[in-house]
Design goal:
The chain contains 9 helices and 5 strands. By secondary structure, the protein is an alpha/beta fold. The strands form 2 sheets. The chain has a 3-stranded parallel β-sheet. Strands 2-3 form a two-stranded antiparallel ribbon. Helix 7 links the parallel strand 4 and strand 5. The chain is globular, with a radius of gyration of 18 Å. The two termini are about 25 Å apart. The relative contact order is 0.19.
Length: about 190
């Protein structure tokens, strides 16, 4: 989600952005019907919503991890998801750090890339600053079919791939992600 927001801000307000790093998301619309990767995200969000932390006092992160195994097979991804849960110190009950209901209710909007009225201007939207895309090699969120759109919006882009990493590149390959970001930012 953050990558789409960052891309939209750079395109709509380029003077506010001095450079851009995007991790495994293209400036396109994703739908569960035509994109298996987005369908998987929707299944994960649906699974998280079904956990109903509020109605389960005494439940632990280990319990949640066991519940999620049915839907989220990858232990690294489950571990990443669990970082969005913490303990409410006053009640001792687990809670979401994120507004999960808002994400679930707005998932179709999040999947889109609607830049509003500014996208209908005669001049094409472009961010001419340096833009660095990091793609997960096992992910389908940035595909060859997206390259023209990326180049149209971000003519000064560079794309690199971390082999074996899926969509959650920063969780699945944190050392490689940080090394690439550091190398790019230090140039």
């Amino acid at each position: 989600m953050g990558g789409k927001v960052a891309q939209a801000v750079a395109l709509l307000y380029p003077k506010l952005v001095s450079g851009l790093c995007i991790i495994d998301i293209a400036p396109v619309e994703y739908t569960p019907e035509n994109d298996g990767s987005w369908r998987a995200v929707k299944l994960i969000i649906d699974a998280l919503v079904s956990l109903d932390l509020d109605g389960r006092p005494g439940v632990t992160k280990k319990d949640i991890d066991l519940d999620l195994r049915k839907t989220v097979e990858d232990p690294a991804l489950r571990s990443f998801v669990l970082t969005n849960i913490d303990m409410d110190r006053s009640t001792g009950v687990l809670r979401w750090k994120i507004n999960l209901d808002a994400i679930a209710n707005q998932l179709d909007i999040i999947a889109g890339f609607d830049l509003g009225e500014k996208s209908s201007f005669e001049d094409p939207l472009q961010y001419e600053g340096d833009t660095f895309f990091i793609n997960g090699g096992a992910s389908r969120f940035v595909r060859s079919v997206h390259m023209k759109t990326i180049a149209d919006y971000f003519p000064n882009h560079m794309l690199t791939t971390i082999r074996g990493a899926g969509h959650w590149v920063h969780a699945e390959a944190p050392d490689a992600t940080l090394a690439l970001l550091k190398k790019y930012l230090d140039r």
